[in-house]
TrEMBL record:
<feature type="compositionally biased region" description="Low complexity">
    <location>
        <begin position="28"/>
        <end position="51"/>
    </location>
</feature>
<keyword id="KW-0547">Nucleotide-binding</keyword>
<dbReference type="GO" id="GO:0005525">
    <property type="term" value="F:GTP binding"/>
</dbReference>
<keyword id="KW-0342">GTP-binding</keyword>
<dbReference type="Pfam" id="PF00071">
    <property type="entry name" value="Ras"/>
</dbReference>
<protein>
    <submittedName>
        <fullName>Rab family small GTPase</fullName>
    </submittedName>
</protein>
<dbReference type="InterPro" id="IPR005225">
    <property type="entry name" value="Small_GTP-bd"/>
</dbReference>
<dbReference type="InterPro" id="IPR001806">
    <property type="entry name" value="Small_GTPase"/>
</dbReference>
<feature type="region of interest" description="Disordered">
    <location>
        <begin position="1"/>
        <end position="53"/>
    </location>
</feature>
<feature type="compositionally biased region" description="Polar residues">
    <location>
        <begin position="1"/>
        <end position="14"/>
    </location>
</feature>
<dbReference type="InterPro" id="IPR050227">
    <property type="entry name" value="Rab"/>
</dbReference>
<dbReference type="InterPro" id="IPR027417">
    <property type="entry name" value="P-loop_NTPase"/>
</dbReference>
<dbReference type="GO" id="GO:0003924">
    <property type="term" value="F:GTPase activity"/>
</dbReference>
Length: 255
């Protein structure tokens, strides 16, 4: 896992890509969210729906203003997000790309889990202490699934568009998450390594349509976000999407 310098300042971020990536769902309802940056502002559209079993309404008005080093003393909400996927799909690369935005890295070699911790500053002036767990290699240790899923608020289920077989393990990860988490855990499907489409890769690369078809075999409502850690495409969008889906649940729990 990449480790951010302890001197690194929180990185300002608009957190929503202007990319038109579609997030398919049964409702096909769209809302527009506006993000403000110190020097620029942009308006982007994102399609959303509630994950099956999710009890909280998605709050797309929530934006992430900045990401800072871990602040153990003060935060309003604690959020745990777990990254799962077959070996080599890009879980660690995604976590490293996020880690460049102000995270510090911690390592637990005894159970093979890396996780990064940071503080997200929201446009509501509230703070989120985010734990992002990278389960690199953990797929071999099914007995430990309950350990790294326990307490998770969100799960990124990642598959590699250049490895069609990586989609075959998606239902297993969904089952593990539902078995070991609460009913309102939020899932996001991540299709990784989209940069391979533009470089003439010698391997067979799935089109966006094929990628959606593969994910939709297993769930028709979970949002799909295509990312490239190499090109830094939609990394921030993935993070914001899951925070928006978790926020109301956390706020309600504080009442």
């Amino acid at each position: 896992m990449g480790q951010a310098s302890t001197q690194e300042k929180g990185t300002k971020s608009s957190m929503m890509d202007a990319d038109d990536d579609e997030i398919l769902n049964n409702n096909n309802s769209k809302t527009t969210a506006t993000t403000h940056h110190p020097t620029t502002s942009s308006t982007t559209s994102a399609t959303s729906s509630n994950t099956v079993g999710s009890k909280n309404k998605i709050n797309e008005s929530i934006q992430i203003v900045s990401i800072e080093k871990e602040n153990e003393e003060e935060y309003d909400y604690l959020v745990k997000v777990v990254l799962v996927g077959d070996y080599g799909v890009g879980k660690t690369s995604l976590a490293k790309k996020i880690s460049q935005r102000g995270f510090t890295t911690q390592h637990q070699p005894t159970i093979g889990i890396d996780f990064v911790v940071c503080t997200l500053i929201l446009n509501t002036k509230e703070t989120v202490r985010l734990q992002l767990w990278d389960t690199a290699g953990q797929e071999k240790f099914k007995a430990l699934a309950s350990s790294f899923f326990r307490g998770a608020d969100g799960i990124f289920v990642i598959a590699d568009i250049s490895e069609k077989s990586s989609f075959d393990r998606v239902p297993g990860f969904l089952e593990d998450g539902k078995k070991n988490c609460t009913d309102d855990v939020e899932f996001i499907f991540i299709a990784s390594k989209t940069d391979l489409r533009s470089i003439g890769s010698s391997t067979q690369v799935l089109s966006e349509e094929d990628t959606k078809r593969e994910f939709r075999k297993y769930d028709s409502q979970i949002p799909i976000i295509e990312t490239s850690a190499k090109e830094d495409k939609n990394v921030e969008k993935a993070l914001l999407t899951i925070i928006q889906r978790i926020y109301n649940k956390k706020k309600e729990a504080k009442k």
